[in-house]
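note to self: the first set is below, dont mix up w the second
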Amino acid sequence: MDRLNELWARGKEFLGTEYAILGGAMSWVSERHLVSALSNAGGFGVIACGSMTPDLLDREIAATKEMTDKPFGVNLITMHPQLDELIDVTLAHKVGHVVLAGGIPPGGAIQKIKDGGAKVICFAPALVLAKKLIRSGVDALVVEGSEAGGHIGPVSTSILVQEILPHITEVPVFVAGGIGRGETIAAYLEMGAAGVQLGTRFVCAEESIAHENFKKAFIKGNARDAVTSVQLDPRFPVIPVRALKNEATEDFMKTQQDVINKYQAGELDLKEAQLAIEHYWAGALKKAVIDGDVQGGSVMAGQSVGMVKSIQPAKEIIEELVEQAAAHLAIK
């Protein structure tokens, strides 16, 4: 354990935790129960604000604080129309870390959070953006590869870490995407990461409120089942999302083709056609996570889903990862 503690000392100090393991912010999944469980187990839970209103976020943070006295963070989407008010809510609760996701933060957001006494974590999908974010004042970065679940970029974790880790030393860098075992955590730490972020492994935590059907889909799934959404026509952009193949995935392809045919026949204008495709997945994640419709909903999952074998307490998952990492380092 000595070597492991030495390698992620910077990440632990930054997060204020026993282990430098962040919980990935997964909409509908990363709420008070899972977030508090991860923090209580020595990791760092992160509330997924998603499309919550300021009032909803206020209640979620308050409820999480009732369930843990350990540090946790809040993930805010940069394009949320009420970003400013959401920042005010997190600062009012004295949340120590705010994760800004979904694009380059708007001017002033980073400084506002820092002035309010919280640390800012941002995602860096390329070295040039990592450097830009550091100049903007971020306190830490997450490097997330395309193996991750949900909305993803085009580059794999193994490439991103080689591009970014050797060149960024000013702030702690956490690695995410495709991490399912402790040996991989150890390898990234040896490459210079301060810690890691995992989402998929924690979906089947006992404390996760995800529907039983959703958890079963993860346990049955393997890496090849976690595929990215396909775009049929560049005029109709599709934001890449990684999820388990299901009936909705197939239906989405048919929907795109139908909409394209209607556009070409003059039945829809370009904007109407684009919106029809964009709105296909509206509410689809909630349908799967909360309602348990794993055929008609979106079962967002990373490629590490094949390493999710059972429902376990969050504490047990974290301890397993830490033991694997420590054992791997002890062999050397």
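second set (the one i keep forgetting abt)
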Amino acid sequence: MKLSYFASASALCLGLALSFSATSAAEAAANCIKGDRKAPYTIGWANIYSVPTWMKQTQGTLEAQIEDLKKQGLVDKLVITDAQGDANVQIQQIQSMIDSDVDAIILIAGSSTAPARVLADACAKGIAIINFDSLVDTDQVTAKVNTDSAQWGEQAAKFLVEQMGGKGNILVLNGPAGVSVSDDRRKGATPVLEANPNVKILAETNTAYNVAPAQEAVTSLLFANPEIDGILSLGGALSAGAVLALDKQGRTQVPITGENARQFLELWKEKDLKGWATMQPNWLGAFATWLSVQALEGKDVPAFVKIPLPVIDNANIGDYLARAADFPADGYIYSPYDQALFEKILAGK
């Protein structure tokens, strides 16, 4: 009788333990998530700056996703801040979001290191944190979302080296120094350039991701370097600026890499450039927002979600330009997206 009692008691305890473990696992399916937050959620968008067109388009996809989630009864409020490029201001704004107890924070970081303490605080309070594009060094976030920026730079450099026959003089155009996306693209290009010593870097510069400063910077570099054979541009607006600078000086266009900036793609087609491009999809904002809700709803969200890099070349540039009218003249022609795509990405397919 006692044996039967203890056997039953043990089975009951084991069942309770397994049940508790399963419940805990469901509640802790993603980092920072405690399972005690309920829909509809308040989402915070901690924007580092809103002036560049890429950022405006990205925020547009985020806001559209919020409207869709509202219709599903999953979100009731979006809080937006703009740090105007100041990483310290961004930290203060994130702290304000924590103090107001938002359920999720969507973040493009102004610094890879500075937000660590405030993000740890948010994570400890069960706030979902989705960091995309410009990433932080800390793991105290729910998930990081990005394309492979190093692969971006590697593929661009390989294209340029191949187009130049493995030799010649190039200019290298980077985005702002200290921005992780820009730095990682450059790091990815480095091994390719080092493996091809006959490709010589005449000059290298960092500029904002805008056409006007890029054109000005390239104009100065062209005056100092009369013979160039290629341009390794690691940003779309930078490429447009470079093409315009060459054109204004009456210089021959050279093989060039870039991004899905509408102006660059239109110049590419107009001038029959030897070009290559990829993209940092603006819908990363929408995906990050959707992903935050998935995490809050108890879904298993990995610590890092890799977004595949599409390639734009002479074979498919026409497909992008066919949709150009749907995007701002100074904007980016990004690929289509929907929830089915998001689910496929989350499933790792």
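remember for set 2: Residues 1-27 have pLDDT under 50 and may be disordered.
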